[in-house]
Amino acid sequence: MKLSVIYQDRKINFDVEYRDRRTMAIQITAPDKILVCSPMGVPEDIIRERVKSKGKWILKKLIQLRDIGPGTRDRIFTSGRLFLFLGKNYPLQILKNGRKRPRVFFNDDKFYLELYELDHIKMRKAMEKWYRKKADRIIDDRVGIYIEKMGKRPQDVKVKEQKRRWGSCTAKGKLYFNWRIIMAPPAIIDYVVVHEMCHLAYLNHSKNFWQKVELVLPDYKKRRKWLKDNGLKLDL
Asked: Which pTM does this prediction carry?
C-alpha cells in the first residue's frame, strides 16, 4: 500500500506493509524508498501521523543517502579508496599478480587486495569474505564476554547477510548478525550484541527490554543514535 504525507512543504511518499509485529518501524533502504512496517489493523491516518512525526529524521536520512551518492554496491574498487573497519578508515592497495582467486589481507593499517584481473564483482566478493571472517571471530568474542555479564547463553550465533537489520534473535534463542556491523566502532558492535542478547529474555521492545539494555549499557541511547545516523555508511 502506498501513502504520503506533507512535512515542511515536502511530500514524503512511502510504502506500508502490515506484519505480525507489535510496534511500527520506518525503514529507508534507498534514496527514494521509504517503507513503514506496521502491526496488523493500524488505521492509515495513524500511520500517516507516525511518519509525519518522524519527518525531520526521514529528511535527514534522505539527505545522507543523496550525499553518499549511488548505491554502495556500484562503487569502484581502486587503490587509495578507504574502507571502514572497527570505526576507522583504511586505504586499499591493489596488487596485480598471478592469483586467479582474489585474496584480501590487512597489514600496517592498510587493506591489500591481490588478484590477476580487475574484476570488480570478484573484488567485492573477496572484500566481503574478509569482513565476514573478521565478523565471525569478533562478534563471537563479544557475545562470549556478555554471556558472562548477563547470564544468558544463545543457542547459536551466526553472521549472515541481513539487508534491513543489524541483528536478530529467534524464538529458539539463535542470534544472527549483519556482517557489515564490523565496520562500526567497537562500542556500536557491543550495542548490537547486547541488544540481541536482551531479546533472549524479552522477545520484544517492551519497557522491560529497554531497561535490561540500559542496565548493561547505560549509554545505549547514544550508541543507538550513532547507528541510526551512520548505519548507511557501513557497506562496501
From this structure: 0.71
